[in-house]
Amino acid sequence: MAEKNVPGPEAGGPGRGGAGGLLSGGLPETLRGLKGVWLLASCLGAAAVAGALLFALFGSRLWACVLAALAVGLLLLSNLWFRERVTSPILGLGDTARRIAAGSYGSLAERLRDDEIGALTDAINDMSVKIGKADRVQNEFISSVSHELRTPLTAITGWSETLLYDDALQGDSRRGIEIISREAGRLTGMVEELLEFTRMRDGRFTLNLEQVDAAALLDEVCFTYSELLRHDGIELVYSAPDGGLPFVTGDPRRLKQVVLNILDNAAKYGRGGRKIEVSAAQQGEYVKISVRDHGPGIAAEDLPHVKERFYKGRGKERGSGIGLAVCDEIVSRHSGKLIVDNAPAGGALITVLLPVETQ
Question: Among 16, 111, 175, 196, which has the minimal tally of Cβ within 10 Å of its Cβ?
Answer without folding.
Answer: 175
